[in-house]
Write a structure and sequence with these properties.
It is built from four helices and seven strands; from the N terminus they run H-H-E-E-H-E-E-E-E-E-H. With about 170 residues, it is α+β, with helices and mostly antiparallel strands. The chain has one domain. The protein is elongated and about 70 Å long.
């Protein structure tokens, strides 16, 4: 390996470790840095609940976390079930590119400026799409048993019990 490249090896390794640490799906957590759950009161018994996942969080997980949060909000406010009045899951596609096969590296000086290394040869760029999901729901919270004939009604305790095994919470630092 060229001596000029050896000095950059620790920087490349550190960068790879930082990127690897960021490579996890969004945990079930209150909104932080644009990711996680949030809710907004619309009326006393009506809320808008949102969950935003990163590009590693599958759509099904985002939607399950939304329902889980809706159930928590329902019980926190003393209600038994909730009805989803309106819901939507938005997909945002972000494109990432990587460049490979750049040939050899070489040192060079240009216009009296020193550059530690240069790139020679041809490379190829690969572009990969990554989807990110945001789920929204407007819910109305109610007392008593949920109506059996309403497919938009959810028993809050039942939702928490059934989805609890799928919930991955944020890790304490």
């Amino acid at each position: 390996m060229d001596r000029s490249l050896k000095r950059f090896r620790p920087i490349v390794i550190a960068g790879a470790l930082v990127l690897a640490a960021c490579g996890t799906p969004t945990a079930y957590q209150p909104e932080a840095k644009g990711l996680g759950y949030s809710e907004q009161a619309i009326e006393e018994d009506r809320y808008r609940v949102t969950f935003v996942g990163n590009s590693l969080t599958p759509r099904e997980t985002v939607e399950n976390y939304l329902l889980y949060r809706a159930a928590e909000v329902t019980l926190e406010h003393g209600f038994d079930h909730f009805v989803v009045v309106d819901e939507e899951t938005e997909r945002t596609t972000i494109y990432y590119s990587t460049v490979t096969g750049l040939g050899g590296y070489r040192s060079f000086n240009s216009f009296r400026n020193s550059y530690p290394f240069g790139v020679s040869g041809l490379g190829t760029a690969t572009v990969r799409p990554r989807d990110r999901y945001t789920a929204f729901a407007n819910i109305v919270m109610r007392d008593g048993q949920k109506p059996e004939d309403d497919p938009s009604a959810y028993d809050a305790r039942d939702v928490l019990e059934r989805l609890a095994p799928t919930i991955v919470r944020e890790q304490a630092s």
